[in-house]
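ugh finaly. both done.
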Amino acid sequence: MKISTKGRYALRMLIDLAFNQGDGYVSLKDIAERQGISKKYLEQIVPLLNKSGILRTNRGYQGGYRLARTAEKYTVGEILELTEGSLAPIACLDTEENICPRRGECITLSMWEGLHKVIKDYLFGITLQDIIDKSVTLEGGDYCI
């Protein structure tokens, strides 16, 4: 499994929002500058996050974005599934029910299911707040994504 730029940048954007949410709504320009990401690229990610209810938007002067929930309510798994689609390591595990015609005789299926479980347990066990807390501990008050 390889996480795309869209998934990584969405995660960085949301962590930045969580870290700077005390400032009210945060502009994409500010996020782009702090994160070294093109504002145009962030503009492509925002509709996906906005449509899913992850972001709140405020237009006009003092406008920008903020998280709809607190940072501890967002998991990395939720964000990556939203941006990447399935986190399954193989196609037959992309859906809730495995419809692969070989599932009955596939001797590697249990291994792939185990890997999928480990990936989901890990990514859904980490919140944005966990990342922020760890970053502050490592950096002594500053953060770097």
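ok and the 2nd:
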Amino acid sequence: MKKFLSTMLCAGMILAMTGCGGGADGKAVYEAASQKTQELTSLDASCTVKMNMKQGEETMDVSSTMNMKMDSANTENLRIVGEGTTSTAGQTVDTKIYYEGGYYYMEAAGQKFKYAMDIEGMMEIMEQNMGGGTVEADYMKEVKVKKDGDNQILTFTADASKMDSYVQEVMGSMASMPGLEGVTYTIKEVSGEATVDKDGYFSQVKMKMVMDMSMSGESISMDMDMDTVYHNIGQPVEITAPADLDSYQEIDPALLGM
């Protein structure tokens, strides 16, 4: 358990670097909001993740936060800045990231390093950090819609078997990280709530996931709650680069298992 928790801290450092009705109508509202939000070229969002893990009689809580701003998505002028914290077992790791000009910069645990990364790779990291709180509409088996003033509140449950294959694919990108080789996941329950604003964008997405994880022949059960909030959606985002980019040491990303 302790080995896994220390690995999670390491992975967090690396990656820190998404009236009533239902059925097809609810899915259509969700899918339209998801597509519209993903098409934004500028974004200011924060994500909070809380996990409770249990192995036998031993339990442990892990929490993390990530605040990110992005501008000029999917262009050669892409810029991203973010700050995050991961805490567990009395240990806390603070992380700062920055992306510009084909380089990914990270400051974590008192260390500053950088490495070359193409725009596609950086967008994948952005989606993992800020888009992980959303579920593809095709994975849903029920969506209910209700009005709340100018907003629409969508509550949903997802098909665990479809989410299982999705999570295996996403987490497979972490398989090369030290300590995460051979880790498998079984999704048991997925549910959530999404708020769609008057302009058709997501303003908040909450998701709860219950899963079992197998690592080195041992099983760990995990309850995970994710809450993603989009700030000033659709508005321009101002990004300020760190003043000391020259102090970051260039490394081979393979050293991080990436």
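summary for the 2nd one i guess: Residues 78 and 89 are 36 Å apart (CA to CA).
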